[in-house]
Structures are given as C-alpha cells and as structure tokens.
Design brief:
heterodimer; A: 413 residues; alpha/beta; Peroxisomal Thiolase, Chain A, domain 1; 2 domains; 16 strands; globular; B: 357 residues; eleven-stranded mixed beta sheet; three-stranded mixed beta sheet; 11 helices; 14 strands
C-alpha cells in the first residue's frame, strides 16, 4: 500500500549506488564521460537537430546517438517509436542496470526527473497539426509517447522490470529530486532498491526559450568566471541504481558510492531568478549536510549548479561561500556544465554520476575555460585537470520555479 | 504511522470556481454544456468544457507573480486558497510549514503552444515573458510565492492516477515531519491542441479544464471531518500486467467496504472497459465526475478525490472510495473515511443530490 506505509524501518538504512549509466555529448557510457570530465573536455558544436539560423546563439552540446541501439528487450517497433530523449534514457538505464547486475523484478520503483519528457514528439505533433491540419498519421502515437510516464514504461520493457513510476518535473532540479526521492523511498522502508535518474533532449522550443531570455552565452560557457555571459544547453541522461547496503552486500555487488544526504526546498524570490544572496541554496546545502551528519570541512568537492549566467552563479557563489565559511578558501568547486552544457532535467542525475566518478577515480573535473573568478567566489574553481583525494562530494541543482536540491555522496571503501 | 486528515478542499471546474459549484453540478447529474474550440486550418471544431469566467476577478491575480500567468496557474491558485481557507483562520495552524505537490498530465499547454508558434514564425521575436510559463513547475512556483509559507514543492507528471501518488507523497512528507500541512493539487488547462490529442486518443471524450485540491494535515484539530484511510499500491501496466489486470488488482486492494464510489468513467466504452470491469460487481452509489464535467485529465482525478472527501465531510457517506485507472501508467485507488474527531467546515449547502446507485 502507498498509504499507510507499514514498513518503516527501525533505523534508516544506508543507501548505496551499485550501478550508474550516463549519456552526454562527451559520449555514451561511463568510460568516455569519465575521461572527458577528468580532462575538462568541452563538447559544444553547432546545433544540427533543428534550424538555429535565426537564433542569437547557434551552439549546444549534442549527443551522438548510435544508429542502432544496443539490444534490449524492446521490439523493433518500440525502438522505432523512441525519440532522442527516450533513446538516451534507455541507453543510460541499460548501462546502470548491467553494471548493478540486477535481475528482472516486479514492484521495483522507477523515479525519473525531466523537464520536457518527449517534447520533441510534442513539437512534431504541433507542427503537423498546424502545417498539415488534415493529416493525422502518427499523431496518436506522438500524443501517447510524448508523455514521460510512457517513456518510463519503455525502460521497464527494455530491461524487464516493472513497478511504480514517479516522474518529477521540478525544472532543472528534477534529476537531483528524482534521486533524492528514490533515497526517501528506501529510507522510509517503501523500497529496498530503486532505479532513479534524469533525462532531457535538446529541443527547438526550449532552445528558443533560453535564447529569448538571452540566457544563452554568445561566447563560451564559463561558470563562476567574472566574464561569464550565459549558459550553454546540452542533452543527456543518467540513471543510478540505489539499494540498501545490506541488499548490496547480500548479493556481493560492487558499490560505486554511498548517498548520504539530500536537501530540497523552494526559493520564492522569482520564477526564473534566484535570490541574490542564495538564501534557499544555503538552506538546502545546510539541510543536506545536517541529514548526512557532515560539515563543510568534510566535503572535498562541490559540483555546483553553475549554469554560467550572471545571476545564478553570483547567487550560488554567495551561498557556497557562506555555507563553507573558513573551508571556502580551500574548497574545490566546479561546474561540469562548462563541458556538457545544461542538461535541464537530466543535469542533477548526470552531475551525481560525475560525483561518483570523482569519488571512485579520485580526480576533480575542471572548467578548462575558466580564467577570472567572480568576486563572490571565496572558493577555488577547479580549472585544470588534477588528481585529488575525494571522500565526499556535494552536488547542487536549481530549477526554474525555485526548487533547489542538494545531494551528498560519499566514497565507498 | 501517523493519521492523515483532510483539512480542506478546493475545486475549479467547468461548473465554477469552488467546491460548492462542483458539488451542485455532480448532484444535478446532468452533463454540463459543451463549447466549441476552433482548430487552426480545419473547419471542424473540437468540443470542450471550459472553466467559466469567475463572477468577480480573483484578488490573487493582483499578486505581482501572477500577473502574466496562464489559466492553469489561476486554477491552481484558486483551489489552493480554497483548500487552506480554514487553515488560514485556525490559530493552531499559525506558522504552519506548507508543502505543495502539483500533479499534471498535459500541463501548461496554452503558453507552450503560443511560444512554440512564435518560435516557428520567428524565434527572434519569441516572447521571453511566455517561455518560463511553459514549464511544468510554473504553477507550483507561483502558488508557493502566493502562499509564502511553502517549504517544499514538487511537480509530478503522469497520467491521472498519479494524483493519488501525489497524495501519498504529501502523506509521506507529513509523516516525516518535513511539513505541517500539504496541498495536493491536480490541475490542467485546455486548448485546441489538447482537445485535438483527445480526439485522436479517446474520440468521445470532451476536453475539460480546472483543478482540485486536498489539504492534508497530521493535526486532528485541523481536520475537516475526513481521514485518509488507504491508498492502494500503484499497479503499473506492463507487458505482463495489462490495464484490466491492474484495475482488478486495485479493486481487490480497496476491498469490499466501499460505501460510495467516485470513479473515473467517462463516455467511451472502450477506454472505460477496464475500470467498469473491475467494478462490475458494484451496484452501490457512484459518482462519475467526467460524465458531468468532461475529461479534465489530472484535474478530473482531483475532482474525484474532492467529490469523495466532500461526500464524507458533509456526512452523506461515512466512507468513499476513489478509483483511478489511468490510460497509460497505472491503476490506483484510495479510500477516505469519516473522522468524527474533527469539525467539518465543508457542509454548507450539501445534500444527497443525484448520486447514482
């Protein structure tokens, strides 16, 4: 029963990650992404998915999808119906599933974050409805498959499991909220393991939206740089497999890291602008640390939301500096959006996987284009590839509408 | 385990801008009049039941954050304010930490269509004022700004059955003491493209707009006389578990102690078959809001729950069950029961009306 929940554990279990899948413009899978993030590779290029000739900005971080998806349990017809977002989601989920070594199961929850779901199908529906109003071919299929819960069910069919689906759409915090909600499900005893992640594909509506807001950088995406002039968009997906440590140990699973803290709240300052002093960001970081039982001194790396916009980064810089206190002077911070752009609903999940990479392989992801720190940054922005001892990493995500989310991950040793 | 009470209800529907209007329309039992939506490039119009203009412009529209918002935010704000009416005047609820869960299926379609249309014509002139209103999270954000004491807000997307997941999430936040009260809102707006999609998927359906809200609390002193008793498992559809099977599993979990059934049956024998089959042995009283109000998607799911709670709060029934058999996600049911420890503040003008046995 969803209510009442009669399975509350006596003490909250420890929650570990035993599988991670990632798709970004740096590549498909852990290996090319880890190499790209470790070296600070930048993946922007001219947009090819739709016409940007009349847009102010013409680049983004596009994913090169394979012509044929690796074999799953999906039928050819199901594969043919996948849009880019669905294909990236299935690819990420498949990698995570295989890495975790999970078997087919019933009643295995799936929690996803997305801002747009199958918006590309929605755009196609609209164009056909307006440009060819009497042509109805494929419209019913588009109307069904553009819905994110249908894309989620495709993951079930691809991997051979099923269970309750929750789709969280808290704008660009969605991916972190999805992982945080999955963590909540395990802590509250509602599940022993959960599949969670986030995804979004680059689309014309969203690209045009950010361009209309003049939020896109006409030069280079440089989060926390004093000369920053906007964000860059990307696309991708990431999926993690969360389970109790007892469950993971029982089956002898390799553990990638431990999720130890989650905080979330809402900034009511403005629909699209954060509070200038980052008051909610500060509160959420403190909340996650309090839940994790850690102090800023114990955090070895912060993967910032760091979009590269003037307002976001100054607000977040204030919050991180205030939260870190004296630790700020030596605290390494970077935003991997400098490499792959802003993945919107996929960002939080992808950045959580980047943190797992940093924890597992002991390096810090640099922002290669970073030169001059914003005066609000009391911390060190990682600008060169470097190995480092990383025992705990904190990841921030904020969304349009004001939802802020923070995840804290710990190295498993 | 905490007890979860319903502290207030809110509804905006084609029947009007409050729960009383919803109740009256459902009691009357007659389908509301249908309007026609023009579809670009096609002489055929599409049927819809729209929300009538409010008799008086709502005061909340004067809030700076709500000036440029689309109808879905207006509906969301109206049901939120109605559902917390009692909370706001109750000294026990002073300084209450409020959570919001806004559930949507179609979401902010009006501004999304408008913005995409502008993009296709000329992206250089597409309005930056409209774009932020296209995101699913916009209504929750605006309502959080309006109510001010909101500490936690999620927007959930799914088929209409996800509304009960939203209620379960609100209950989870309350049990974890993350909030003192939680508004769970289901909202939709409609336009020609939603009606067009329905025409492709469920031809007899009539698109409708509006919202519904339940305000949940752990505090019995805030109870409106209704308690959340049960939410079944989410019986997700899969290749091994089809929609009729899921509907029957939900029905089985709700048990036989149903007094009033608020179902999601509309006017399409084909799409209603799974739900009708699951309840084929049920001959008791039944409310089917979609037959009166139209296919309001997530709003319709919320109307079902509001109708169920209202029937219990106004002492027409001591318990009411909600059946949600979504089109493409899952089947979930819920049961609300009379809470005699609470003081009902929802009984104005209630009568047994035209509930069909």
């Amino acid at each position: 029963m969803l209510f009442p929940n009669s399975t509350s554990p006596q003490s909250p279990p420890r929650v570990v990650v035993t599988g991670a899948g990632i798709v970004t413009a740096l590549g498909i899978g852990w290996k090319p992404n880890a190499e790209g993030f470790r070296t600070g590779k930048v993946a922007f290029r001219p947009v090819s998915q739709f016409d940007v000739s009349r847009q102010r900005v013409k680049i983004a971080a596009e994913v090169d999808l394979p012509k044929n998806l690796p074999a799953t349990r999906l039928s050819r017809r199901q594969v043919a119906r996948l849009d880019r977002a669905g294909a990236m989601l299935v690819l990420a989920a498949q990698e995570a599933w295989q890495q975790a070594g999970w078997e087919s199961a019933e009643n295995l929850p799936l929690v996803l974050g997305t801002t747009a779901g199958g918006m590309l199908l929605g755009e196609a529906y609209y164009r056909q409805a307006v440009q060819h109003p009497r042509r109805h071919r494929q419209q019913a299929t588009r109307a069904i498959h553009y819905q994110p819960q249908v894309q989620a069910r495709t993951v079930f069919d691809a991997l051979g499991f099923s269970g309750p689906v929750t789709v969280i759409s808290n704008a660009c915090a969605s991916g972190s909220n999805a992982i945080g909600h999955a963590w909540d499900l395990i802590l509250s005893g509602q599940a022993e393991r959960v599949v969670a992640g986030g995804y979004d594909a680059l689309g014309e509506l969203v690209f045009s939206g950010f361009d209309s807001l003049q939020a896109l950088s006409p030069t280079i995406c440089r989060p926390f740089d004093a000369r920053r002039d906007g964000l860059a968009l990307g696309e991708g997906a990431a999926v993690v497999m969360l389970e109790t440590v007892d469950h993971a140990r029982r089956r002898g699973a390799a553990i990638l890291g431990e999720l130890i803290g989650y905080g979330t709240s809402i900034d009511q300052h403005h629909l699209t602008q954060p509070h200038p002093q980052g008051s909610t960001t500060l509160a959420v970081m403190k909340q996650a640390c309090a839940i994790a039982g850690v102090t800023p001194e114990e955090i070895d790396y912060v993967n910032a939301h760091g979009t590269g916009t003037v307002l976001n980064d100054s607000s977040e810089a204030f919050a991180i500096s205030e939260w870190a206190g004296r630790r700020a002077a030596t605290l390494p911070v970077s935003s991997t959006k400098a490499s792959i752009g802003h993945l919107l609903g996929g960002a939080g999940a992808v950045e959580a996987v980047v943190c797992l990479m940093a924890l597992g392989e002991q390096w810090l992801p640099p922002e290669i284009e970073f030169e001059t720190p914003d005066p609000a940054c009391k911390f060190t922005v990682v600008s060169k590839p470097q190995d480092a001892r990383v025992n705990m990493a904190l990841s921030n995500s904020f969304g349009f509408g004001g939802v802020n989310a923070t995840l804290i991950l710990r190295r498993w040793s | 385990m905490s007890r979860i009470f319903v502290a207030g209800l809110g509804a905006v529907s084609p029947a009007g801008w409050n729960v009383a209007a919803l109740r009256e329309a459902l009691n009357r039992g007659e389908p509301l009049p249908v309007q026609s939506l023009a579809r670009p490039g096609w002489e055929k119009t599409l049927p819809a039941r729209l929300v009538p203009n409010p008799a008086v412009r709502p005061e909340f529209l004067a809030h700076p954050r709500l000036r440029r918002t689309s109808p879905i935010t207006h509906y969301t704000a109206a049901v939120a304010l109605e559902a917390i009416t009692a909370l706001r005047t109750n000294p026990d609820a002073k300084n209450c930490r409020l959570g919001i869960v806004v559930c949507l299926q179609s979401g902010c379609v009006q501004y999304s269509c408008r913005f995409y249309d502008e993009t296709l014509k000329n992206p250089a002139t597409a309005s930056p004022l409209i774009f932020p209103e296209t995101v699913y999270a916009a209504p929750a954000s605006h309502v959080a700004a309006l109510l001010e004491n909101v500490v936690l807000a999620y927007s959930l997307v799914g088929d209409p059955s996800a509304y009960l997941q939203g209620i379960a999430l609100g209950a989870q936040w309350l049990e974890a003491n993350r909030v003192d009260a939680c508004l769970v809102i289901g909202a939709e707006e409609t336009n020609w493209i939603t009606a067009d999609a329905l025409w492709h998927l469920d031809r007899p359906a009539i698109a409708a707009a509006g919202a519904g809200a339940l305000c949940l609390s752990r505090d019995a002193r805030l109870s409106a006389g209704v308690e959340l008793n049960t939410i079944t498992d989410a019986h997700t559809y899969s290749v091994r578990h089809d929609r009729p099977q899921a509907a029957r599993a939900m029905r089985a979990q709700l048990g036989s102690s149903v007094e009033l059934l608020c179902d999601g049956v509309g006017n399409n024998p084909r799409s209603d078959a799974a739900e009708l089959g699951a309840w084929s042995d049920w001959n008791g009283p039944r409310i089917s809001p979609k037959r009166i109000l139209g296919e309001g998607l997530m709003a319709a799911a919320a109307w079902q729950c509001v109708a169920a709670c209202d029937a219990v709060a106004t002492e027409r029934f001591s318990a009411a069950s909600v059946s949600l058999v979504g089109p493409n996600q899952q089947a979930i049911g819920a049961r609300f029961v009379r809470d005699d420890s609470g003081i009902s503040h929802l009984s104005d003008g209630a009568s047994t009306g035209n509930i069909q046995p």
